[in-house]
Design brief:
single chain; 2 domains; six-stranded mixed beta sheet; 13 helices; globular; binds zinc ion
């Protein structure tokens, strides 16, 4: 057990104004009581961290990064060892040492306030593919006719269980994709999700292994009863980052909050005995902060396997209410039709206020699915300018969000409505 965990136990159990350690001021007692969740989490988060190599036998070769030339120009030139190897329009491809991706992410966050704002590829071929315009999603008919089901399931979304999920996810030193605690958080999530498959043979959980880094993505599949080959994806990134390397990065908002919302949707659907007609895959993506690597590999695997993705809902930062309206949709590199459908779901079932904003290139995991021609959307916590100012720092904690998860509840309720109306 490391010092951070001991400190978390102290802060959680004593509820005392403990002295700040390494920039931390966690105070899980301000909102809902999550002491049991924190106790359970720290029993599990036992390692002191440290970086891990990629899978044994894999030589860590170069990665190929696509990003906007203007973004690259705003960064420290020392980050780039060579000139772009290819370019087209506003985008360029750069060769990178994979161990430098954290430094690139940190540079982008500092200079551009973008996270990550680039896409990393294992091969040059994939990177060159990204310079082309993505195929447009085929037109889909979106309908709302499941009101009774949606209204039955919505009350099963509960703030206290979202708080518990954020608490345990953010109790690790970090969930860095190359770090020991990033792996432990993934293993814990696999166990949490495996529990949902008890008595539900239609539910299975798998760890998606990535050859190039140690953290595994986690996929919970709820198999469809009548159209199992059609797939709805709901998820968000599991990893966290602060600076780069093995730094304290609780990532409570970015993005324990998105994983917690994803978990809450699974929980509500299971508790409500809901069985979708189409298959739903709930995914916690590894390595988003290093250039959408987890979601990029999964979307590529889905394409190769011929998976028919009917829609993808990406949850990345849901718990900090920085703007007037409740939910803001990312309008670029997403599906306008699906965004409109989500707006209708809000208007019909939830009554929240909503808006939209542009997020830029390589903004989050929706981009990995959008570039395959699948409808993808990201409902976000605020406008980009007004998002949580503590992200990518050791102070991205639940306490900094008031200790509760009232804002995340809105996203979980929206995701429940989306699941029921799209997977019917
Ligand atoms: Zn994020």
């Amino acid at each position: 057990m490391n010092k951070l965990n001991l400190f978390l136990i102290y802060a959680a159990l004593c509820g005392a104004a403990a002295p700040a350690a390494a920039g931390y001021a966690p105070d899980f007692d301000r909102g809902v009581d999550v002491r049991a969740a924190v106790r359970a989490a720290v029993e599990d988060a036992a390692s002191a961290g440290g970086l891990l190599p990629p899978a044994p036998g894999r030589a860590e070769g170069p990665v190929w990064v696509t990003m906007e030339k203007s973004a690259a120009a705003s960064l420290d030139g020392a980050l780039f060892k060579t000139a772009p190897v290819a370019q087209s329009g506003r985008l360029a491809v750069y060769e990178f040492d994979p161990t430098e991706l954290g430094r690139l992410a940190d540079g982008m966050h500092r200079a551009m306030r973008r996270a990550p704002g680039f896409i990393a590829h294992d091969t040059l071929e994939e990177a060159l593919e990204d310079l082309k315009a993505p195929p447009a999603p085929r037109a889909r008919a979106y309908t709302l006719d499941q009101a009774a089901r949606v209204k039955k399931l919505l009350p099963l979304v509960r703030e206290e269980s979202i708080v518990s999920s954020i608490a345990w996810l953010s109790s690790y030193k970090n969930r860095y994709y190359r770090g020991a605690t990033g792996v432990e958080a993934s293993k814990r999530l696999q166990r949490e999700w495996a529990a949902y498959s008890e008595g539900r043979p239609d539910i299975s959980v798998e760890a998606f292994k990535h050859a190039a880094f140690a953290q595994e993505s986690v996929i919970l599949t709820m198999r469809g009863t009548s159209e199992p080959d059609k797939v709805v994806v709901i998820g968000g990134h599991l990893d966290s980052i602060a600076g780069y390397g093995d730094n304290p990065a609780p990532g409570a908002d970015d993005n324990a909050s998105g994983v917690a919302v994803t978990n809450e949707v699974v929980k509500a659907l299971v508790e409500g005995g809901y069985r979708p007609a189409r298959t739903i895959k709930f995914i916690a993506f590894a390595a988003e902060e290093a250039g959408l690597r987890g979601s990029g590999e999964i979307a590529a695997a889905f394409q190769k396997q011929g998976v028919k993705v009917e829609g993808m809902l990406n949850l990345d930062m849901t718990n900090y209410k920085g703007s007037d309206r409740d939910i803001y949709f990312v309008s670029d590199n997403t599906s306008a039709d699906q965004n409109a459908f989500l707006g209708k779901l809000i208007d019909s079932y939830l009554g929240y206020t909503w808006g939209s904003f542009d997020c830029g290139y390589g903004c989050s995991d929706h981009a990995s699915f959008a570039k395959k021609g699948w409808p993808a959307s990201t409902p976000f916590e605020s406008t980009y300018e007004q998002c949580n100012p503590y992200i990518h720092k050791a102070v991205d904690t639940l306490a900094k969000m008031g200790g509760g998860a009232a804002h995340s509840v809105k996203f979980a309720r929206l995701a429940v409505a989306y699941a029921v109306e799209l997977a019917k």
